[in-house]
Amino acid sequence: MSELRDPAPYDALLLLSFGGPEGPDDVVPFLENVTRGRGIPKERLKEVGQHYFLFGGVSPINEQNRALLEALRKDFAEHGLDLPVHWGNRNWAPYLTDVLREMAAEGHRRIAVLTTSAYASYSGCRQYRENLADALAALAAEGVEPPRVDKLRHYFNHPGFVRPMVEGVLASLADLPEDVRDGAHLAFTTHSIPTAAAESSGPEDGPEGGAYVAQHLDVARLIVDAVRDETGVERPWELVYQSRSGAPHVPWLEPDICDHLEALDAAGAPAVVMVPIGFVSDHMEVLYDLDTEAEAKAAELGLPVRRSATVGADPRFAAAVRELVLERAANERGQGVERCALGPLGPSHDLCPVGCCPARAPRPAAAGADSPYA
To answer: Are 193 and 123 in contact (CB under 8 A)?
Structure first.
């Protein structure tokens, strides 16, 4: 087998995601999974679940993961990469522990893991590593020898992730009325998190303010530069946030997208393109917080607004995943390879260092320098 197609030492890829309900009866049990240990009453979860009920109780994320799963399998097959691809979730079926059990039963011993979160943060990286450790511990308790799992590096600045978003912005600009197109602002959106979590994201010696914000700003600048080069227009832009869910007294990243739209309208902005760079696909946060809530705010203001496309199952993203797998495999074999990344931050680490994206209460986490599963 050509080294460019050799996944060794890996014998499988696991697509690891958040999960979501697939019908009205799933919504509250799903939210109970998400909030387990926080003591949130069921009645409150029913209120929170209204966002899902607006869409028939179905989150789009599972169907989008099925599409990505097929895109990965198609790309791998077309490029001669003989690597089975499985899919598991943190909070809904197919559950991670069940999938790892099945993979172990099929004989998989070294598994590369792709998470549907491109950036460094506790919830977007370390918590998935904790989920992996929990699942491996459960298998060990059942007498099943746990496979080794290696999480692929952050891919926020990989061309296969960035370029589809650039084209999404260009398409959204083209869809705006011509008289407001050149003056349109770009609002790059991502999930708000507590400021303390943002500041501690990434390695302990990372950038001031944390890796979470720095990485999003890196991607935003890459997109802004590419859009300017292709349109000849320098556009005002800002990184803004959405989907806050924490207690009011805890500081979270701001400004909120709806507040930002109000501020832009007051300042005379002629139009806005919302660019959801924080999301791999059209999660519920995109469908509700942007396509429903933010677009309603823009309509109330009389402000022309468009929402650009997420990456989803774009073939270029599937190709990027293949490249990430083969890059990591070569590095694990001790063969130096070029690590593809755009922008000044460069490629992220393969192995999360000790203290990276810390939790409030330390818990075992797999696929890092502090993993109990070597």
So the answer is: yes
Q: What is the pTM of this model?
A: 0.96
Top-level CATH class of 159-307? Answer: alpha beta
Asked if residue 30 lies in contact with residue 21, where contact means CB atoms within 8 angstroms, the answer is: yes
In whole angstroms, what is the distance from residue 270 CA to residue 184 CA?
6
Scanning the structure block, which residue is given the tokens 């950038």? 207
Residue with tokens 């499985």: 86
CA 128 to chain centre: 11
* Measured distance between the N- and C-terminal CA atoms of the chain, rounded to whole angstroms: 27
CATH topology of domain 3-20+59-153+313-332: Rossmann fold (3.40.50)
HEC profile for 318-335?
HHHHHHHHHHHHHHHCCC
Long-range contacts of 339-347 (CB under 8 A, 24+ apart): 339/153, 340/158, 340/159, 341/157, 341/158, 342/157, 342/158, 342/159, 342/162, 342/222, 343/157, 343/218, 343/219, 343/221, 343/222, 344/218, 345/157, 345/214, 345/215, 345/218, 346/157, 347/153, 347/157
Which of the pair, 245 or 6, is modelled with greater confidence? Answer: 6
Contact 312, 67 (CB under 8 A): yes
- Whole-angstrom CA distances from 34 to 48, 72, 149, 371 are 12, 27, 23, 24
Asked whether residue 1 carries a pLDDT value surpassing 50, the answer given is no
DSSP E strand boundaries for the chain: 12-17, 85-89, 110-115, 148-151, 185-191, 237-242, 272-275, 305-307
**pLDDT digit string (tens) for 141-198?**
999 999 999 999 999 999 999 999 999 999 999 999 999 999 999 999 999 999 999 9
Ordered by start, the domain boundaries in the chain are 3-20+59-153+313-332, 159-307
Q: What percent of the chain has pLDDT over 70?
A: 99
- For residue 118, the cross-strand partners are none
Q: How many CA atoms does the CB half-sphere of 219 hold within 13 Å?
A: 32
pLDDT in tens, 105-126: 999 999 999 999 999 999 999 9
Q: How confident is the model at residue 374 (pLDDT cuts 50, 70, 90)?
A: low
